[in-house]
Amino acid sequence: MSPPAAVAAADGGTGGGGQQSRQQQQGGFGHSITGIIRIAVFWYFASKFFSPKKPADPSHLISNLFQKGEPMDMWLYLSEHQRFNDFGNEASLVWHETNIPYATWGPESTRTLSLNYHPSDALKNNGSLYAHVFFARSGYPPDPNDPEYQSQAAFGRTHSLVAYLPKSRSDKRKSLLGNSKDAEGSEPVAMVVDDAEAESKDDGPVEWIAYWKPNITINLVEDFTR
Questions:
Q1: Cα–Cα distance measured from residue 220 to residue 70, given in angstroms and rounded to the nearest whole number
Q2: For the CA atoms of the chain, what is the radius of gyration?
Q3: What is the value of pTM for the model shown?
Q4: Quick check: 212 and 223 in contact, CB under 8 A?
Q5: 101, 67 in Cβ contact below 8 A?
Q6: Comparing C-alpha atoms, which of 168, 189, 169, 186 is closest to residue 177?
Q7: CA 226, CA 53: separation in Å to the nearest integer?
Q8: Are 148 and 141 contacting, i.e. CB atoms less than 8 angstroms apart?
Q9: Which residue of 19, 107, 155, 189 has the lowest C-beta tally within 10 Å?
């Protein structure tokens, strides 16, 4: 009876090996599917970030509205208000130029003006003053309320003509050399310390003073990059 037992044992061993082989094949197939999915995901993101970009449609590119050498007119208004819409006030218009060639650098495109401005009482008491500069194609108005106004033919900028700076405080420095009478009026040479505590207690809030800007320079940007 020994040989049949050996055969049975042999048959049992063969069946276990076949089942293990099928499990290995199924596992290998699953790993293959996972690898394919990973490759597909990597290819998708790589194509999104590293693929060459298509050239943009020329109609969608931002470009300059004005051509090189195109004649332009300029208006400069002075007002104590930061927002300006009083285009009909001739007293506010202090400078008007016509036929300025755009982006053409030379004597024909350089204009200068010197004037004396008489400030109001409000301006003398720490008031503000603004220069409102407008440009437009020659023949077009800068006033948005004008029937012939075109938004793509005019532009402007507001510039403050007054700078506010803190008022200079009295000098409270102390010399460490002593109070020698001979040293009075001479410039201190050795160490000098500031009495910060006395400043913070005695001076109080900072006072701001208005200073005039004696010059204003207006430059047009030349940029034809699309």
A1: 13
A2: 41
A3: 0.59
A4: no
A5: no
A6: 189
A7: 17
A8: yes
A9: 107
